[in-house]
């Protein structure tokens, strides 16, 4: 694609996926405006360290603010007239959504409505937005296909992500807003979120604390390495918006297409850390699902990409980053 004159907006640019995507865009010569409220859901020092890397790159502008602030968003869209918006900002976390539902309504529904309204008003050429594998709930058919019904979410977080897809489709239908939804499957890797299993397990193992394993380890996750996720987003962005007479809207699964047993995941982490750990086996937690497994046939068909990084290689890269990052923080 020909690079746009105006910058791309990446919301949630200090977050895990937002940071990696922004860096890739900048490395390829795109201009990026990053928006993030740097909330305290997890250690903001990690977000600030990510941002420091981005700020040292030409063509990056950072704005601290929330997507719930419509006035701020309108001023940014007016100033920059973004051709492409990659909307990754959201209140994340399945279990946290059971304790703080209002936070999810504000960020994931009110904030997303603000993004849609601005994209409509300023005639954005392509909106790419984050959804989640959690929309599949306890879907019994595997692999999970974008053709499957996703009407039975098992967490507030999942419900808000399903709502985002419906809202985006409606705006596409009513206002011809080109939009691509991306259902991410358990993304992991360097600079990852501290509330995710890989991070919490690594921290516990290094500090010789037991790890808590839910559903007695009888779970499978389609762990997807961050570089594979970013490559998929970049290809979708360069491919351009969906073309559909009814509504220029399409959803893709972005996963590894190879679910891994949680116990094997832990064993691989122990191997690369060079330490064993004590496991505390616990029952299933509310909001959790037994298995996730992405059917990525549509993604492969449309952008000709299949994930490249194995779970062994991905965990190895994470451990290298994790031990170096926290060694330097001591």
UniProtKB/TrEMBL annotation:
Pfam families: GDP_Man_Dehyd (PF16363). Residues 9-317 form the NAD(P)-binding domain. Keywords: NAD. Transmembrane segments: none annotated. SUPFAM superfamilies: NAD(P)-binding Rossmann-fold domains. InterPro entries: NAD(P)-bd_dom, NAD(P)-bd_dom_sf. PANTHER family: EPIMERASE-RELATED. This is UDP-glucuronate 5'-epimerase.
């Amino acid at each position: 694609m020909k690079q746009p004159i105006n910058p791309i907006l990446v919301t949630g640019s200090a977050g895990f996926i937002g940071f990696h995507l922004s860096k890739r865009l900048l490395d390829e010569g795109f201009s990026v405006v990053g928006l993030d409220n740097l909330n305290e859901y997890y250690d903001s020092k990690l977000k600030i360290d990510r941002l420091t890397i981005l700020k040292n790159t030409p063509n990056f502008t950072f704005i601290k603010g929330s997507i719930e602030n419509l006035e701020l968003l309108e001023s940014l869209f007016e100033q920059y007239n973004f051709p492409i918006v990659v909307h990754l900002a959201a209140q994340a976390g399945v279990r946290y959504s059971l304790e703080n539902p209002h936070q999810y309504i504000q960020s994931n529904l009110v904030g997303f409505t603000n993004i849609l309204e601005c994209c409509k008003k300023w005639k954005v050429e392509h909106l790419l937005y984050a959804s989640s594998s959690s929309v599949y709930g306890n879907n019994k058919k595997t692999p999970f296909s974008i053709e499957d019904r996703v009407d039975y979410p098992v967490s507030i977080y999942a419900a808000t992500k399903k709502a985002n897809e419906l809202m985006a489709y409606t705006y596409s239908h009513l206002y011809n807003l080109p939009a691509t939804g991306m259902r991410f499957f358990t993304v992991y890797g360097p600079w990852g979120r501290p509330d995710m299993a890989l991070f919490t397990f690594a921290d516990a193992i290094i500090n010789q604390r037991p790890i808590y394993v839910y559903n007695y380890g009888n779970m499978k996750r389609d762990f997807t390495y961050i570089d594979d996720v970013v490559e998929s987003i970049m290809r979708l962005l360069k491919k351009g918006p969906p073309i559909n007479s009814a509504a220029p809207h399409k959803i893709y699964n972005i996963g590894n297409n190879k679910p891994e047993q949680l116990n094997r995941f832990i064993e691989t982490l122990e191997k690369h850390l060079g330490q064993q750990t004590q496991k505390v086996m616990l029952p299933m937690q509310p909001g959790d699902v037994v298995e996730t497994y992405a059917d990525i046939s549509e993604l492969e068909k449309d952008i000709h990409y299949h994930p490249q990084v194995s779970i062994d290689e991905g965990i190895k890269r994470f451990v290298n980053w994790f031990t170096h990052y926290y060694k330097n923080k001591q």
